[in-house]
Write a structure and sequence with these properties.
Elements: E1 3-14, E2 17-28, E3 32-36, H1 43-50, E4 58-63, E5 66-67, H2 73-81, E6 83-86, H3 98-109, H4 114-128, H5 144-156, E7 162-166, H6 174-189, E8 193-197, H7 201-207, E9 210-215, E10 218-224, H8 225-229, H9 234-245, H10 252-257
Parallel strand pairs: 3-8, 3-9, 6-7, 7-8
Antiparallel strand pairs: 1-2, 1-4, 4-5, 9-10
Helix pairs in contact: 3-4, 3-5
């Protein structure tokens, strides 16, 4: 499989501190690449740089070999049309209803659908996600989990070929987590390229094709998921243990992820 997005020597400075330092990462087209690292390691920053939302202070980000910063306005619009981003905090437009939040990306990027088809698609997605009674509500009237689901729907309603996910199952209940898992599986089934930050070991083992481990703004290792998670490098296994230790006890899920479970 070929490289879709490439980061070369990417450094991002935040108040003089290197949030990312000399990161080289290749995002494989059609695969699900998972980013893992401790809190504050630069995961979300890396995700936003790859999506073109944050320009690097040094280094380059390329799309199919073309420097993202040199793309024409038309090419950048095409890139935006073909990707979706699920923010960790939802990042919904607070002054718009949930219906309007989902409809706007289609109105901007898929105007040829027309208002009737846009309305049909929005209502259909809300019904599938159990939000059929919520189209007129504002984000503030939803629970945290419902806002996360609405953010996921907004990111994927245009049937993107590239999706960026920042902790898509964080702080949502089991039912909603299963719903998100099913929707991510649907993305994989149609060979969507996925770059995701997530801590959920079960979801990671179900969905990830590749795993990138980051620590203190530096990429430690990246490769096939099964190879990286069973790495004999004590630094890699130590980082993964720290990551999962932030949200869970050292249980069988952790042991399985690190390749240390019973045979």
């Amino acid at each position: 499989m070929s490289e879709l997005i490439g980061l070369r020597g990417v450094t991002v400075l935040t108040e003089g501190h290197e949030s990312l330092a000399e990161v080289d990462l290749s995002v494989t087209e059609g695969a699900c690449t998972l980013i893992m690292g401790p809190s504050g390691s630069g995961k979300s920053t890396l995700l936003k740089v790859a999506a073109g939302l944050i320009p690097p202070d040094r280094g380059t980000v390329s799309l199919r070999g073309e420097d993202l910063s040199a793309l024409s306005e038309q090419r950048m619009l095409e890139f935006r049309r073909e990707n979706g981003f699920v923010f960790q905090d939802g990042a919904l437009w607070e002054n718009k209803s949930i219906f309007e939040n989902l409809a706007l990306p289609l109105q901007v990027h898929r105007p040829e659908l027309g208002e009737a088809r846009i309305r049909e698609r929005v209502l259909g997605m809300l019904e599938r996600a159990g939000l059929a009674d919520s189209p007129a509500l504002r984000p503030a009237q939803l629970s945290g989990g419902e806002r996360k689901i609405a953010s996921f729907l907004r990111a994927t309603i245009g049937e993107p070929t590239v999706v960026f996910l920042d902790e898509p199952t964080l702080a949502i209940d089991h039912t909603m987590s299963e719903l998100v898992t099913g929707m991510i599986r649907d993305l994989k089934a149609r060979r969507c390229t996925i770059l995701a930050v997530m801590h959920d070991p079960r979801l990671a083992s179900l969905l990830a094709d590749r795993l990138a481990v980051i620590d203190a703004g530096r990429l430690v290792v990246e490769g096939p998921f099964d190879e990286v998670k069973r790495s004999g490098d004590p630094r890699v296994s130590g980082i993964l243990a720290r990551v999962l230790g932030e949200i869970s006890s050292f249980d069988t899920d952790l042991l399985d992820l690190l390749g240390g479970g019973a045979p």
